[in-house]
């Protein structure tokens, strides 16, 4: 590991101040991603500003009638919180499918949003990778890309965002609250938080330098009866998704009044299927409509050489997730 | 008296004698020895697959605080070198390193940094800059390099009868190819060493499976007398074959210690465990089978195409199992190897059988389906009590019993031959079976026993250079001494893993338990016999050992002993056998599957301790599940490095992946195997699990999965076999 200094900020102002005075500083949440990447020599901050002890560790009600999740609350405490389980079980289910108990205990909500891709080229400093070292080329595009994107990729980068939590947040719809360098808050709609790679794959999100994530606001309780998070992977835990689907349905009088649908493991950002959500709205929750939804979802898929399987897997996973969400006994 | 004996002698289900040390963190592994004044070494890896180093700039690293030395081929001491072209890699093979500018594969050691602290060494290692002249055409793609395959010298081709005639006379034939990927051993404990070179003598606290072999390899590499090398490895956190030989970090650490005149610790990182220890290579196994409608096999061939490095040969004996398992008159085994720009592969987790049985036992299932015959009956039909490949009778073979008893316990009669006939919601449910066998290569082994009389009690210390790689060696050796000395286990101390102790064959190939315990038995028996002889007491007279010492007027007595394979052993084929039954549920949408339960029956001779034996089998089954479910190392197709580079990408099974497992040991007395009737268990559990699960997946889905691991994406892409009602 490269030498670095550690700043134990006492309050938010100190943290923001430290970050704005050093462009090479990184905030430290649970460290489960950042420290790994530092050991691999991928991230090379010369200063870590600990933000995990600044507070922001509560789940509270917000004025929209929803819940606000503290940015520094651990993934475990969030997923197992009674209010979250009751009102946003889809989020809870997705979060509990991630990583392992130990990692979830350490990982913070803010850190989860900012975890970086697991593209193996990104991790190996001897390989070309535009995300890690802009201008060196994308090793995956013409190399091993079985685990990569089928939506929204660019010639510069075909990586996927690895988070499970974020897929559920995309399906539910959320707002991220950040503090800007001057201490003032800024709200970012969740679908605008992460970005597609374009020709700037080194930028994962639309966060400005030095901005600190303090909260995630959830809307009024939704999909608390009909929900499912389907994560396809080769072993039953401690593995990232090949493909995942967060599905939520509101059903009234035998019809879908609102659908929430997003996919993981398919794009540079959590892939919210807005068109499909709209398509399902007003339809009856049956196999034919679920199949049509899956077809629609995959219409624009552009698989790479090594990940054609994701199209079929994606379709079937959508059908399966919607079916299991619908059939779930409350 | 009788009771204490039964509670601790051979066959008793006692807890690990070293268990308390381990759970309290007091069992010392290689780098936990309190060696004073040690420095830390960190290896540097090449970043090209083939070529030459043309420039090295170590100035930045050398300028860092704490850095003591940067060693590359330019300043490394000259070591013994591999003599011939493509020599065989064996357990005593020398491990020369940093001897030239040549790069043979991506990740090969090109240098080592030594510093005052581990962190300094790691940081500095990243700052050494290498410039390469790359060879534009490294051999890194298996599929495109088949024309480079040669006939290895390590394993010869074999033919019995006439394959063509055998196939011609068959009613049904099968020609199928099975692929297993590159896999890595990944024991929990990383390869590690603390090395000291002092006055021309080497002391190595090094995590090794074979102590004596390691002293030979070190001595030969540095061209010093073997007696000047001491290897100490009392606890090993797993090896799975990767610690059988002496790897290059051992040599690097010793070299650095010699250069600096102080002890040097070196740990191979988890990432380096992919490139700087052995691995299992990719295998492509083509199976041809012919059978009559009555189920009798007429022909069986097993052709294996694998790869080795460009500088050494290792050939996994995949075809071995097809030579001996069934009654088949016409039999052909071949091997071909492609020299590729990767490190030399080496024995991994039941080498030969684990991969060979996947091919053979899948092919047997395919043939049973063609014949519309029950796969258990098909195997029983082709049983043989003679090892046709070796032309020797088996010392004992209870394969039929394993299959029958397993089928009964499992509820095999509820299986429908037609795939896809059992469904529950999303799930397609299937049953699978496979037969297993594993050679029991018992070997000569020695030990020393020290008896001490204290307050009417005899305390025994047994010493040998054996290793306990997590398997339970300490426990079963203590039980053996307890049995043959007639003292409780609590009065026995076992000391292992030091080259100063009597020589054993070490842990590997499932020979440890039989060899160690018979060695210990011999020493104990020698002690008792001599003590009796001295006093003219008849051999058969039953006198407690404490009484014997008293009569001899001795407070302390030492004896050595060794045991070796008998003439009868050499005239027989000695194997353990088993059968694995599994129930697998496949999600028809996503291709994810769950192994719901397994019944594993083993006939493995005398079970020394049911608890440790059970641990061995479930450990083996877990490795088998890893093979079928998820384990694979992927090669970057353009650069030739392994892009599977940590345990986050190299997926071993988690608890949730493991089934409900029932393990049954059949009572088996095999005195030809050795005097104690002990056979190998370690690798028996691994063998055939992959086939059992793959066969269950066929029964569930009608899809024939011939390429490991069987992942969701492969299952989604696979087609239902012709003839299966979808
Ligand atoms: C082996 C392994 C398996 C895993 N499996 C999964 C999985 O299956 N699914 C899944 O979703 N995740 C998985 N994870 C990832 C895990 O969820 C993330 O590592 C974790 O959520 C990151 O949170 P953290 O608090 O530890 O972040 P850190 O590592 O502390 O930080 C990550 C990044 O976020 C920044 N940061 C942290 N907090 C803030 C803040 N408040 N404001 C602004 N910036 C901030 C840091 O500067 C850093 O750049 C896995 C991780 C590992 C190591
Ligand atoms: S996909 Fe993105 S992260 Fe992966 S190598 Fe290409 S640029 Fe790097």
Report on the structure:
- The complex is a heterodimer of chains A (330) and B (726).
- With 330 residues, chain A is an alpha+beta fold.
- Among the domains of chain A are: 5-52, Uridine Diphospho-n-acetylenolpyruvylglucosamine Reductase, domain 2, CATH 3.30.43.10; 226-327, Enolase-like, domain 1 (2-Layer Sandwich).
- Chain A is 31% helix and 19% strand.
- Chain A is built from 13 helices and 12 strands.
- Chain A has helices at 12-20, 34-39, 75-80, 82-87, 89-96, 101-106, 109-114, 120-123, 165-172, 190-193, 274-280, 287-298, 309-327; strands spanning 5-7, 25-28, 47-50, 59-61, 67-70, 175-179, 185-189, 212-217, 226-232, 243-252, 255-264, 271-272.
- In chain A, the strands form 3 sheets. Chain A has a 5-stranded antiparallel sheet with strand order 4-5-8-6-7. In chain A, strands 9-10-11-12 form a 4-stranded antiparallel sheet. A 3-stranded parallel sheet of chain A has the order 1-3-2, with helices on one face.
- In chain A, a hairpin with a 5-residue loop joins strand 4 and strand 5.
- In chain A, helix 5 (89-96) packs antiparallel against helix 9 (165-172), helix 11 (274-280) runs antiparallel to helix 12 (287-298) and helix 12 runs antiparallel to helix 13.
- Chain A starts with a strand and ends with a helix.
- Chain B folds into 3 domains: 33-136 and 188-238 and 243-274, Aldehyde oxidase/xanthine dehydrogenase, a/b hammerhead (Aldehyde Oxidoreductase, domain 3); 283-441 and 571-717, 2-Layer Sandwich (Aldehyde Oxidoreductase, domain 4); 443-564, Aldehyde oxidase/xanthine dehydrogenase, molybdopterin binding domain (Aldehyde Oxidoreductase, domain 4, 2-Layer Sandwich), CATH 3.30.365.
- In chain B, helix 9 (353-371) runs parallel beside helix 17 (689-701).
- Chain B has a 7-stranded mixed sheet, with helices on both faces. A 5-stranded mixed sheet of chain B has the order 7-15-14-13-8.
- Helices cover 25% and strands 24% of the residues of chain B.
- The longest helix of chain B is centred in the last third of the chain and has 23 residues, at 512-534.
- The termini of chain B are far apart.
- Chain B is of the alpha+beta class and 726 residues long.
- Chain B is globular.
- Chain A binds chain B through residues 1-3, 41, 118, 120-121, 123-124, 126-127, 139, 142-144, 146, 230, 232-239, 242, 309-310, 312-313, 316-317, 319-320, and chain B through 47, 119, 122-123, 126, 426, 587, 589-592, 594, 629-630, 634, 636-639, 641, 643-646, 648-649, 651, 653-654, 656-657, 709, 711-713, 716-717.
- Iron/sulfur cluster binds next to helix 8 of chain A.
- The site of iron/sulfur cluster has 16 residues of chain A, from helix 8.
């Amino acid at each position: 590991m490269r030498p670095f200094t550690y700043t134990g900020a006492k309050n938010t102002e100190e943290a923001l101040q430290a970050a704005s005075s050093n462009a090479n500083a990184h905030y430290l949440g649970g460290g489960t991603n950042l420290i790994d990447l530092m050991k691999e020599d991928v991230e090379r901050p010369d200063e870590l500003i600990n933000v995990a002890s600044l507070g922001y560790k509560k789940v509270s009600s917000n004025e929209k009638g929803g819940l606000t999740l503290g940015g520094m609350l651990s993934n475990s405490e969030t997923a197992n919180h009674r209010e979250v389980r009751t009102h946003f079980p889809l989020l809870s289910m997705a979060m509990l499918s991630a990583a392992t108990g130990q990692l979830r205990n350490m990982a913070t909500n803010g850190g989860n949003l900012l975890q970086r891709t697991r593209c193996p080229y990104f991790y190996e400093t001897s390989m070309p990778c535009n995300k890690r070292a802009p201008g060196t080329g994308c090793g995956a595009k013409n190399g091993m890309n079985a685990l990569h994107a089928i939506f929204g990729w660019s010639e510069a980068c075909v990586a996927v965002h690895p988070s499970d939590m974020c897929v559920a947040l995309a399906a539910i719809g959320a707002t991220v609250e950040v503090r800007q360098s001057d201490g003032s808050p800024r709200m970012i709609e969740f679908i605008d938080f992460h970005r597609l790679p374009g020709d700037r794959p080194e930028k994962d999100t639309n966060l400005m330098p030095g901005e600190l994530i303090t909260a995630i606001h959830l809307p009024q309780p939704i999909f608390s009866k009909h929900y499912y998070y389907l994560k396809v992977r080769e072993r039953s835990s401690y593995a990232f998704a090949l493909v995942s689907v967060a599905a939520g349905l509101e059903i009234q009088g035998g019809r879908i009044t609102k659908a929430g649908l997003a996919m993981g493991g398919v794009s540079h950002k959590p892939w919210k299927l807005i068109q499909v959500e709209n398509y399902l709205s007003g339809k009856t929750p049956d196999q034919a409509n679920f199949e049509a939804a899956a077809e629609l979802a995959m219409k624009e898929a552009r698989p790479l050489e090594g990940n054609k399987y994701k199209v079929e897997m994606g379709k079937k996973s959508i059908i399966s997730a919607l079916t299991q969400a619908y059939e779930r006994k409350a | 008296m009788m009771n204490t004996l039964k509670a601790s002698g051979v066959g008793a289900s006692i807890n690990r004698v070293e268990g308390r040390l381990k759970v309290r963190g007091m069992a010392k592994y290689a780098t936990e020895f309190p060696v004073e004044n040690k420095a830390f070494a960190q290896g540097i890896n090449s970043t090209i697959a083939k070529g030459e180093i043309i420039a090295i700039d170590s100035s930045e690293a050398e300028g860092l605080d704490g850095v003591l030395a940067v060693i590359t081929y330019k300043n490394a001491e000259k070591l013994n070198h591999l003599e011939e072209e493509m020599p065989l890699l064996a357990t005593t093979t020398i491990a020369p390193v940093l001897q030239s500018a040549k790069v043979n594969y991506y990740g090969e050691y090109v240098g080592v940094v030594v510093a005052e602290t581990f962190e300094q060494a790691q940081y500095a290692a990243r700052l050494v800059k290498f410039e390469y002249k790359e060879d534009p055409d490294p051999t890194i793609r298996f599929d495109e390099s088949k024309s480079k395959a040669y006939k290895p010298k390590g394993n010869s081709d074999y033919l019995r009868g006439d394959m063509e005639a055998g196939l011609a006379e068959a009613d049904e034939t099968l020609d199928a190819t099975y692929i297993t990927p590159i896999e890595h051993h990944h024991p929990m404990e990383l390869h590690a060493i603390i090395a000291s070179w002092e006055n021309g003598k080497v002391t190595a606290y090094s995590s090794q499976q074979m102590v004596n072999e390691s002293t030979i390899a070190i001595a030969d590499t540095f061209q010093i007398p073997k007696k000047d090398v001491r290897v100490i490895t009392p606890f090993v956190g797993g090896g799975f074959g990767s610690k059988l030989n002496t790897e290059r970090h051992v040599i690097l650490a010793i070299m650095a210690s010699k250069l600096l005149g102080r002890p040097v610790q070196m740990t191979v990182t988890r990432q380096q465990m992919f490139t700087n220890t052995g691995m299992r290579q990719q295998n492509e196994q083509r199976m041809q089978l012919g059978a009559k409608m009555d189920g009798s096999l007429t022909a069986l061939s097993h052709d294996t195409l694998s790869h080795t490095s460009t500088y050494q040969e290792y050939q996994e004996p995949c075809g071995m199992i097809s030579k001996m398992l069934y009654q088949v008159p016409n039999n052909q085994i071949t091997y071909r190897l492609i020299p590729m720009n990767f490190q030399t592969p080496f024995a991994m987790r039941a080498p030969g059988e684990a991969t060979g049985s996947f091919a053979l036992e899948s092919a047997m299932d395919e043939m049973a389906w063609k014949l519309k015959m029950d796969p258990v009956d098909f195997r029983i039909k082709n049983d043989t009590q003679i090892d046709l490949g070796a032309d020797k009778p088996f010392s004992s073979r209870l394969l039929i019993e394993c299959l029958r008893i397993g089928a009964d316990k499992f509820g095999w009669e509820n299986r429908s031959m037609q795939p896809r006939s059992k469904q529950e919601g999303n799930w397609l449910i299937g049953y699978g079976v496979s037969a297993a066998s594993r050679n029991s290569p018992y070997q000569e082994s020695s030990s020393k026993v020290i008896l001490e009389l204290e307050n009417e009690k005899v305390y025994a210390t047994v010493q040998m250079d054996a290793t306990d790689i997590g398997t339970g060696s300490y426990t079963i050796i203590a039980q053996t001494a307890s049995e043959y000395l007639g003292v409780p286990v609590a009065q026995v101390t076992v000391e292992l893993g030091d080259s100063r102790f009597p020589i054993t064959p070490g842990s590997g190939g499932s020979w440890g338990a039989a060899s160690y315990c018979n060695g210990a038995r011999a020493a104990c028996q020698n002690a008792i016999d001599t003590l009796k002889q001295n006093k003219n007491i008849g051999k058969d007279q039953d006198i407690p050992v404490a009484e014997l010492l008293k009569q001899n007027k001795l407070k302390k007595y030492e004896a050595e002993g060794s045991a070796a394979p008998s003439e009868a052993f050499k005239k027989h084929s000695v194997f353990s056998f088993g059968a694995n039954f599994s129930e697998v549920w496949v999600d028809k949408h996503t291709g994810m599957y769950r192994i719901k339960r397994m019944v594993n029956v083993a006939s493995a001779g005398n079970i020394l301790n049911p608890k440790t034996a059970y641990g061995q089998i479930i450990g083996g089954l877990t490795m088998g599940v890893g093979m079928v479910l998820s384990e694979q190392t992927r090669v970057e197709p353009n650069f030739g490095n392994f892009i599977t580079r940590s345990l986050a990408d190299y997926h071993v099974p988690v608890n949730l992946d493991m089934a409900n497992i029932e393990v049954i040991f059949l009572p088996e007395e095999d005195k030809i195997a050795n005097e104690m009737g002990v056979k190998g268990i370690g690798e028996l559990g691994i063998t055939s699990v992959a086939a059992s699960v793959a066969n269950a997946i066929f029964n569930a889905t009608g899809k024939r999965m011939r390429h490991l691991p069987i992942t969701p994406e492969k299952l989604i892409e696979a087609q239902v076999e012709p003839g299966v009602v979808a």
